[in-house]
Amino acid sequence: MSMKDPYEVLGVSRTASADDIKSAFRKLARKFHPDVNPNNADAEDKFKEINTAYEVLSDPEKRARFDQFGSADGPNPGDFFGGGGAGAGGFGDIFDMFFGGAAGAQRGRATRDGEDIATSVQLSLKDVLASAEREVTFRRSATCDSCKGTGAEGGAPRETCSTCGGAGQVTRVQQTFIGAVRTSTTCPTCSGVGTLVKNHCRTCRGSGQTPKEATLTVKIPAGVEDGMTIRIPGKGGAPGPGGVSGDLYVKVHVEEDEHFERDGTELGTGMNITMVQAALGHEIEIEGLSESLTLRIPAGTQPGKVFNFRGAGVPPLHGGQRGDLHVQINVMIPQGVTEAQAKLLREFAELAGEESAREAHGGFLEGLFKWKR
Length: 373
Ligand SMILES: [Zn+2]
Ligand SMILES: [Zn+2]
Fold this sequence. Notes:
Helix content: 10-25%
Shape: elongated
CATH class of one domain: Mainly Beta
Oligomer: single chain
Bound molecules: zinc ion
CATH superfamily of one domain: Urease metallochaperone UreE, N-terminal domain
Strand order of the largest sheet: 10-11-15-14
CATH topology of one domain: HSP40/DNAj peptide-binding domain
Number of strands: 15
Structural class: alpha+beta
Mean pLDDT: 81
Order of helices and strands: HHHHHHEEEEEEEEEEEHEEEEH
């Protein structure tokens, strides 16, 4: 399932502010809400689309991830980017919108998850032949050493909030004409966390985290392609109280190679030979990506002819046989021939009965793109 561009869905620019996004969402959600469009499947789809888009753009982390990776979810755990997408979208936000904050408050204690971190590694085309290990260094928020993550000076344990008893929210019962109505709101004392500290840690100012340089060895599978992203769950930023660690996203850059062009598992390269080699046949050693290959050019080889070497390409991502290497022949026509050479060439032409090459016209472009299939 691919996700539509959430900016397009909401009709906002890429630089739209949170307020712009919210107001665009509200306008569209009102228009396409199922209550306003009963039995209208198109409106329902549109409504889901709007919700999905808003889910991404209203969450700064998801938005940043979309901007960077073109998907709000990131790849599957330990896997690479495939389809992805933000899913059908919950109705939580729309209920918040229509019924005030009550639905939101029932979600329980506020927690703060660690941030997702993006970093990158650089590989040469040759590196792609086998799985590789690369050390990546990045800055992440880590548990504060001074307070052991509690946020309290000297590492004192956090105290349960007395206002909400640790629940993170306060419930009020109001008597109305339809009976008792319970409303829950985020606890104003602890901001929904459920615990408090008396004296904030001076190192981290109470957040429980300090930025630290982290180093991690990342395994990169053979056959990886430029632009792919590896997700390493739990290796991003340290979480706040009650939250979970963020993920690390490692984007892989495969450098362009000066000799080989890549198309998935296939490689392509060119080879210059002389007119005489093409006419008489020739044997050349060529350097493949990782091996020496013998190219036997038969007599009468035409320019543009492609020779294939099975298994001299790149392995597929999920294991298996390497693809092929395709070598396209370029025949070099001598330039600046001497008078002696010219004489021989004229003699050659005469012997060949050469008048005009016109009659050979037709179909000579065939095979030019053959290796690309
Ligand atoms: Zn601290
Ligand atoms: Zn509280």
